[in-house]
Design goal:
Structural class: alpha+beta
Strand content: 5-15%
Order of helices and strands: EEEEEHHH
Number of helices: 3
Distance between the termini: 38 Å
Largest sheet: 3 strands, antiparallel
Strand order of the largest sheet: 1-4-5
């Protein structure tokens, strides 16, 4: 389904369901002793911070977790494989370090900085080189052999 109204750009990141979501919304009600009705002219209100649940697979979290993210270009058709490789490493790190999903990438990067200190390598230079590779691998930059005298330091591999 290609949603164009309330769920435009929204789908479950786990199962892909885009038909409906359970969203905890804020509403204004007229409440009387015998029941409640929506206040006239008051529609339910929600934003990216409101809790949401997929009725198909029970994935839940803030609505922002359901936003469909556009992936950058993949000119060589291998970025999914690269992401899978990184996911494998991150999952191993999470298991060993006993860190949660929310902190895992930050904790891993921090620990890589500690490793660079101990191996006398320049983490900032490694990160800059990784950014150049990423930009090339997503089509944001073209390979430029003229800026690197060492072929192993080319932007695109």
């Amino acid at each position: 389904m290609n949603n164009v109204n309330c769920l435009a750009g929204i789908a479950c990141p786990q199962c892909g369901n885009a038909d409906s979501l359970l969203i905890t919304a804020n509403v204004r009600l007229i409440v009387a002793d015998d029941g409640a009705d929506f206040a006239r002219g008051c529609d339910p209100i929600w934003d990216d911070d409101n809790p949401a649940t997929c009725p198909e697979c029970d994935f839940d979290g803030p609505l922002s977790n359901f936003t469909i993210r556009q992936l950058p270009p993949d000119p060589h058709g291998v970025n999914a494989s690269r992401a899978d490789c990184a996911s494998y490493a991150l999952n191993a790190f999470k298991s060993h370090a006993r860190t949660d999903d929310q902190s895992a990438v930050t904790d891993l990067l921090c620990n890589l900085m500690h490793l660079a200190d101990r191996n006398a390598t320049d983490f900032d230079a490694d990160l800059a080189r990784a950014r150049m590779h990423y930009e090339c691998e997503t089509g944001a930059a073209e390979p430029d052999d003229s800026t690197h005298s060492n072929p192993s330091e080319r932007i695109c591999l």
